[in-house]
Amino acid sequence: MKELTRPERLAPGARVAVVAPSGPVPEERLQAGLDVLRGWDLDPIVAPHVLGRHEEFGYLAGRDADRAADLQNAWCDPSVAAVLCARGGYGAQRMVDLLDWDAMRAAGPKVFVGFSDVTVLHQAFATRLGLVSLYGPAAAGVDFVKSARAQDHLRSTLFAPESVRTLTSTGAGLAPGRARGITLGGCLTLLAADLGTLYARPGARGGLLLLEDVAEAPYRVDRLLTQLLRSGWLDGVAGIGLGSWRDCGRDEELRPVLADRLCGLGVPVVEELGFGHCDDAVTVPFGVRAELDADAGTLTLEQPALR
What is the domain partition of the chain in residue ranges? Predict the structure, then answer.
């Protein structure tokens, strides 16, 4: 697995676009997120359909073509230095095939931030653009607008990425050891759903897989991990870092499932690295070389996420 191209870090005054590739966005949270971005001396612009809602499917922020156009136009706008997703939810799978990846590649690298359902786009940015992306909080997400730590970590990643190169676990290692590899991953449900598509990574071989999810019962986590195992997608993975598992059952129910499904791979597994659907979520880059140390409980980037 190869390292991907790192976009340039942001500078004060940079223009950033907020898009909604998935679910509908509450206006009050959007405004709160925009206020945070303006407080960082950024110039946020809102894509036309961010506050939209599909006329038939209310779980979508407008029609697929409109959401795709928002993302593509923002990405291809030379005045925009970063594209931030307003929220997750569901819908990225429906619009990813509508994007003109040749045009987006020609626009050059820039920063892309989002998480959860946006996992689908992280995979596509890696496979189609060869670009490092940031698995970080949504610009209009409740866990972002109410969390100073989530804000500070994303801000540091965007402006001073050398200052946030180590994540430290608040839990214990599921399996010991140390491994190096290229970071990849995201929300477990979306990684499993993306298997076999044109944009999915072909597998995790040689990589450090970062996994998290929300509101999946332990048996469903088992099913999703088993699907990745049976498909061969986890063959050759170098190590696994786990984020949050909010509303995925009690720890005494979920932890044995994670251990049963992952420890047989014979690679280090670190729990509770603090990314994903959780309070004070940190930002992690996909596509950079890092070291996972299960004994120390750390994930250390070998270079900053952004140039």
Answer: 15-163, 166-301
**Residue 1, pLDDT score:** 81
Instruction: Give the pTM.
Output: 0.97
169 tagged catalytic: no
Catalytic residue, chosen from 116, 133, 169, 244, is 116
277 is catalytic: yes
Residue 147 has pLDDT above 90, yes or no: yes
Taking Cα atoms as reference points, which of 302, 248, 246, 238 lies closest to residue 270?
A: 238
Q: Determine the straight-line distance between the first and last CA of the chain, rounded to whole angstroms.
A: 20
pLDDT, tens digit, for every residue of 167-191? Answer: 999 987 899 999 999 999 999 999 9
Instruction: Please provide the CATH number assigned to the domain covering 15-163.
Output: 3.40.50.10740
Of 212, 216, 271, 272, the catalytic one is 212
Give mean pLDDT, residues 64-74: 98
Do 86 and 30 meet the contact criterion of CB atoms below 8 Å apart? yes
Fold of 166-301: Glucose Oxidase; domain 1 (3.50.30)
CB atoms within 10 A of CB 122: 31
Residue tagged active-site, from 122, 133, 277, 291:
277
Instruction: Assess whether pLDDT exceeds 90 at residue 132.
Output: yes
